[in-house]
């Protein structure tokens, strides 16, 4: 199951990378996004908003870096089976979901438009976090201060009692 979780993260990171690359291509070319899906037709409004860039860099480029790093970490973890790599995957997934929640909040309550590509990215990040949580729990296992009692059937009372 642990290996399957890492493979799932690898696949999801690839999908997130494809999603982000499409948005980067849109930002570079200025072509309108294809997003006429019921209530998710606000992609171009979101992409044109002041929140679509940080320090002049399109958010999608940060997405490419984010998903690219996750993909590399998952690929390395499959080969090396390293605890540090698992922790980095978990930390990246946690940071990613916090960022996704913030951006979804902006879409719903500030921009008043929803981008399907952003929602897909947030869902991908959520599933990455879920799979990363199953690879290995984030909290350390605490050793008991007092060792558990051993087999009591072998204990005997001292002869003087």
UniProtKB/TrEMBL annotation:
UniProt xrefs under Pfam families: VKOR
Ranges that cross the membrane: 62-81, 88-108, 114-135
Subcellular location: Membrane
Membrane topology designation: Multi-pass membrane protein
Ranges for domain Vitamin K epoxide reductase: 2-136
Main subcellular localisation: membrane
GO annotations of cellular component type: membrane
Keywords: Disulfide bond, Membrane, Oxidoreductase, Quinone, Redox-active center, Transmembrane, Transmembrane helix
CDD domains, per database record: VKOR_1
Gene Ontology molecular function: oxidoreductase activity; quinone binding
Family to which the UniProt record says this protein belongs: Belongs to the VKOR family.
PANTHER family, alphabetized: VITAMIN K EPOXIDE REDUCTASE DOMAIN-CONTAINING PROTEIN, VKC DOMAIN-CONTAINING PROTEIN
Protein name per UniProt: Vitamin K epoxide reductase domain-containing protein
Organism of derivation: Candidatus Kaiserbacteria bacterium RIFCSPHIGHO2_02_FULL_55_17
């Amino acid at each position: 199951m642990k290996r399957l979780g890492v493979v799932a993260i690898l696949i999801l990171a690839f999908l997130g990378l494809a999603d982000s690359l499409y948005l980067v291509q849109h930002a570079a070319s200025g072509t309108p996004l294809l997003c006429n899906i019921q209530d998710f037709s606000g992609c171009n409004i979101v992409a044109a908003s002041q929140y679509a860039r940080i320090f002049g860099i399109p958010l999608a480029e940060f997405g490419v870096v984010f998903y690219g790093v996750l993909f590399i970490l998952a690929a390395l973890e499959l080969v090396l089976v390293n605890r540090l790599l698992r922790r980095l995957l978990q930390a990246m997934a946690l940071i990613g979901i916090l960022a996704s929640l913030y951006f979804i909040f902006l879409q719903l309550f500030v921009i008043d438009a929803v981008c399907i590509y952003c929602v897909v990215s947030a869902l991908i990040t959520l599933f990455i976090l879920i799979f990363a949580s199953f690879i290995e729990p984030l909290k350390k296992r605490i050793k008991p201060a007092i060792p558990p009692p051993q087999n009591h059937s072998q204990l005997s009372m001292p002869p003087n009692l």
